[in-house]
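Ticket 4471: requesting a sanity check on a complex prediction with 3-methyl-2-oxobutanoic acid. Repro inputs:
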Amino acid sequence: KQKVTIPALKEMKEQGKKIRMVTAYDYPTGILVDKTDIELILVGDSLGMVVLGYDGTVPVTMEEMIHHCKATVRGAKNTLIVGDLPFGSYNMSISDAVYNATRMMKEGGADCIKLEGGLPVVETVRAIVNGGVPVMAHIGLTPQTASALGGFKVQGKDAAAAERMINEALKLEEAGAFAIVLEAIPAPLAEIITKKLTIPTIGIGAGVHCDGQVLVTHDLIGLFDRFVPKFVKQYANISQDIVAAFNAYAEEVATGKFPGPEHSFTMKDDVLKRLY
Ligand code: KIV
Ligand code: NA
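Returned structure tokens:
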């Protein structure tokens, strides 16, 4: 496997080849994704919910993101790594945003960053790109500001909202974003945006016509079931396997079946004799 380049993602769009992205937050998952043909890893701030147990993504800090990004990068040497900028790291000033995007690359080891938002972040995106950090945009349902959107619900359903979103996507492309995540929007709207843009769209809950797809790994493998959104497909139920393994271990320890002789160390008889 060879690490995909950012220009190659645009070529994939032009050739109609689908772009695959999943999240990873640690070294072992980085290694596993690296064994597959999946082009991109997102070290998403969704880690706040699925690995740190927060109610949402808002509390996630730059330090937490960098910590998880570093671990993931050590495992995934041949997969392009997108580091998600957490809430509060790019909303206060453009210079803050450029600084934190740079940290994600320099300290976290990410190849590029992602941030959420439409028109209000266009100039931020431009400044980060000019600073030398490639930016993936993210519009539609933006979890960091979900409460202002009225909760975790589909965006862009009426004509005015849909037109606004098309305009945002075009402005983000013009500002230099190399790709754009479309989250929880009607499939026909995602198709229109995908056709209007020259940069790839990566959908989550945005239908099959996007240039690529992304899922949260913990949703995809069934390792997080506090809630399962409509747009998630579970390809495995790892939670069940893990609980079964824990139960089998607990049972074998209780009954003395584990550890067996094959898991235990021996001593020479003459050494042992002296101890009695
Ligand atoms: O943090 C995340 O996992 C994301 C994806 C859902 C796009 O932003
Ligand atoms: Na995110």
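Notes from triage: The two ends are 58 Å apart (CA to CA). Leaving this open until the requester confirms.
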